[in-house]
Amino acid sequence: MGIKKCSVCNMRCIGRIFRFPKDSATKNMWLEALNMSRSDITESSYICENHFRSQDILKLAGKHHLRVDAVPSLHINQPGSSATITAENSITLTGDRNL
């Protein structure tokens, strides 16, 4: 698997990554949670594991999958802030909002 770029933190991710859902209702929930629109993503858009709670990621038959009801909720850029992921996979948010 090559290195993909996360659509949320705009960083190249080496860890687990997930595509946006094909289901329109679920995709809309993700877009709303991420403060994004359909024009912000393509068929090849990904989100890295850093934006999901650990309980949202399941290991089945040796592969990692998202729970059906998983919605990205961690380290989401908010207006006036930005995210930076360090080599240790910690994310620092900066900006004028209290998060």
From TrEMBL:
Keywords: DNA-binding, Metal-binding, Zinc, Zinc-finger
InterPro entries: THAP1/10 (IPR026516), THAP_Znf (IPR006612), THAP_Znf_sf (IPR038441)
Entry keyword annotation includes Nucleotidyltransferase: no
Entry-linked SMART domains: DM3, THAP
Domain THAP-type: 1-75
Membrane spanning stretches: none
Molecular function as annotated in GO: sequence-specific DNA binding; zinc ion binding
Protein name: THAP-type domain-containing protein
Source organism (scientific name): Callosobruchus maculatus
